[in-house]
Specification:
Length: 103
């Protein structure tokens, strides 16, 4: 088996063996099932991107947990920026409507 196929199999086994950790992190940072599933996929993608960089200095489950946690925190930060932007736009629109009505 060539290296790429072996890495793919090892990665699939990693996800399968530790899916509980990934689901737990995704659930902790989301309230809806749709958001939880989106985050689960995002975590899996980040794990795949980082899989070749795993140095073996920590247990594989510890490394996986940290990647999952960091991905979840980044997701919350992105969502917060989007929400903040929407709130600002809403306030501006309301202010403009008020100014126009007063004239």
């Amino acid at each position: 088996m060539d290296r790429r196929k072996r890495n793919k199999k090892e990665f699939i086994d990693l996800i399968e063996n530790h899916k509980g950790i990934i689901h737990k992190v995704a659930l902790m940072y989301n309230s809806t099932n749709a958001d939880k599933e989106d985050l689960y996929q995002e975590i899996c993608m980040q794990l795949w991107r980082s899989f070749g960089k795993y140095r073996g200095e920590a247990k594989l489950s510890t490394w996986l947990y940290r990647v999952a946690l960091n991905t979840a925190i980044s997701s919350v930060r992105k969502r917060k920026r989007i929400i903040d932007t929407v709130e600002l736009d809403t306030e501006r629109t309301t202010t403009l409507k008020t100014v126009i009505k007063k004239k």
